[in-house]
Structures are given as structure tokens and as C-alpha cells.
Amino acid sequence: MPIVKYPRATEPLWHEWDRRAQKCGLRHTVFAVNGDQYTGEWLDNLKHGKGTQVWKRTGAIYSGDWKFGKRDGYGSYSIPDPITKEYKKVYTGWWKNDKKWGYGATVYPGGERYEGEWSSGLRSGWGRMYYRDGSIYEGQWLVDRPDGQGMLRLPNENRYEGGWKDGKKHGPGKFFYLDKGQLFEGIWAADIPKCGILIDFGRDEAPAPTQYPIPKV
């Protein structure tokens, strides 16, 4: 008796329809139930590629790269001004796994600015911070605080150069009192100088030098 070969059963037709319906590669605009809006590229029903997300509740906008549903790559995050309603960029730079990661610049609500490296959404690595009072810190960061080697320049041009830990002066360092023409070189612990040497430094050019020079030892 001859053997009859039947054709292999094909997958259900609805599988093919489902694949065709999935957003993949093309640009689409999709509204979430809560009113959030995304316009951009997709892969397997996930935001992937270039796209722009608008959050309805806050009005915030992210425009840039996405990877499997999360901000990943280069992009900018902006929020509307509560009074003028004009959009202001809060962060521009690199992202990873939906967090600031890599090099980027951010502007804080009070006008302070940071530009430098990030890790898991926190300032980590090298960076420069511009504070509201005019001070500038430039150096190493760890978990959102100065940590390592760095320089803090005050509004009156006095500055500290040396070690930091947990956001405080710690370890060997130098403090230049340029307004008085003096230099203190010593050891700090938790922002407190523990021991060191104070000498005259640029006293002739100082705007407010001490009345008498420091005697040489």
C-alpha cells in the first residue's frame, strides 16, 4: 500500500496577523491610557530607535534614543516653565537603562548647572558643578558627591585644591587665600583642617593682605 504524505500543518493564521499588526521599525504615534504620548520607532511593540515621549501629567518631553522600551543612547529631557510654559532643557546627554549614564549636562531648578559624567542617574566620574553662589567645583565625583581629587573655587577667587570624600575636604590639600595673599597646606578631615603650614603667597598682589607678613621659620 503506497504511503500518503500529507503536507505539514502550517501555524494558525492568526499568528501571521499578529506579527503584521505589531509595531516594528516604522514610526507610530501611540497614546497611553493615562494620556502619555509617544511618537517614534518600535521593535516588537517596544519603543526602540528614535522617538519622542510626552508625559501628560508633568508636560515633560524626552526626545532621543530608545532601546527595548527604555531611554538608552543620546537624548534630551525638557520640562515646561510653570509661568511662561516655555520648554527648558533639564538634561542633555547620554542615557542607559532609562537613567543618565555617561557624559551629559543638566540644569537644576535654582539655576545651578552640572556638566560631566554620570552613572545610574548620579554624578559619578569627572565633572564640573556651577553653584548658585558663584562657586565652581571641578574634579571627581562619586554617588552624587565630590569624592577623590578636585578643586573648589569660591566667588572671591579663593580656592581649595586637594582630596575630597563624601562631599567634604578630606586628605592632603591646599587652600589659597588669594584675597589675603596666604597659602595653607595641610591635612583635612571632614572639611576641618587638622594640621598644616600657613605661608605668605602672592601677598604683594593681594587685594586685602594681612597687616604683617608671616615670619619665616
Automatic annotation (TrEMBL):
The lineage of its organism: Eukaryota, Metazoa, Chordata, Craniata, Vertebrata. This is MORN repeat-containing protein 3. InterPro entries: MORN, MORN3. It is found in: Cytoplasmic vesicle, Secretory vesicle, Acrosome. It comes from the Eukaryota. Assembles a suppression complex (suppresome) by tethering SIRT1 and MDM2 to regulate composite modifications of p53/TP53. Confers both deacetylation-mediated functional inactivation, by SIRT1, and ubiquitination-dependent degradation, by MDM2, of p53/TP53, promoting a proliferative and cell survival behaviors. May play a role in the regulation of spermatogenesis. Signal peptide: none annotated. Gene3D superfamilies: Histone H3 K4-specific methyltransferase SET7/9 N-terminal domain. GO terms for cellular component: acrosomal vesicle. Keywords: Cytoplasmic vesicle, Repeat.
